[in-house]
Write a structure and sequence with these properties.
Strand order of the largest sheet: 1-3
Structural class: mainly alpha
Strand content: 5-15%
Largest sheet: 2 strands, antiparallel
Helix content: 25-40%
Order of helices and strands: HHEHEEHEH
Distance between the termini: 40 Å
Oligomer: single chain
Length: about 200
């Protein structure tokens, strides 16, 4: 993207979120802040330097580029469905898509870092329930598909979920259990000391 980083919408929104965090430094009442960015979504256009931070020459092709069942699935979908077959893409195009996606992920890391820096600088991080997640993955050429859609492949379903609970006790750990976004609201209510409704899933 030719748009400078300072003027990119996601950067401006992250900066606004960081300013809000810093404005809460001397206030005792709790706050809830939700920051969401468009990246990484097709067409994976990020501001410099993230648009070229990963070279296609550094990227590998998918280990599972062909999938007979996926081809049958695609044949049953309408042409305007979000998932696209890789049949019309050249290898170098798939490599470029994968590199652009990784660059967009690096951009998201930078954006989240802006907000984390504000929390840490103002000594609020240890008192904050911080949750980072995504709504879906990307096919990126795996199983002969580009983009996303209503399929249950690992590449789409296995998304990041990082939770930093308030307080300094405990150590970082990796959870191998099956979790879902449906679990987030009860978790947030629990950490806020609020009653979790009995009819709430998760």
């Amino acid at each position: 993207s030719l748009l400078p980083l300072a003027f990119h919408p996601s950067f401006r929104n992250a900066s606004a979120a960081a300013r809000f965090v810093r404005s809460r430094r001397q206030k005792d009442n709790p706050f809830c802040l939700v920051y969401s960015c468009h990246e990484p979504h097709l067409p994976f256009i990020s501001p410099r330097p993230f648009d070229s931070i990963i070279s296609p020459s550094e990227v590998k092709l998918p280990e599972n580029p062909l999938d007979a069942s996926a081809a049958r699935l695609m044949a049953k979908r309408s042409m305007d469905w979000q998932l696209k077959s890789t049949a019309r893409f050249r290898e170098e195009e798939i490599l470029s898509i994968r590199a652009a996606y990784m660059g967009a992920v690096a951009y998201v890391d930078h954006l989240v870092g802006i907000i984390l820096e504000a929390l840490i600088d103002t000594n609020q991080f240890e008192d904050t329930l911080f949750i980072f997640t995504s709504d879906h993955g990307e096919m990126l050429g795996n199983h002969g598909m580009i983009a996303k859609g209503a399929v249950l492949y690992e590449e789409l379903m296995n998304i990041p979920l990082l939770v930093h609970p308030p307080g300094k006790e405990g150590k970082a750990s990796l959870c191998h259990s099956l979790v879902s976004h449906i679990d987030l609201l009860p978790t947030i209510l629990h950490w806020c000391g609020l009653e979790v409704p009995s009819n709430l899933s998760g």
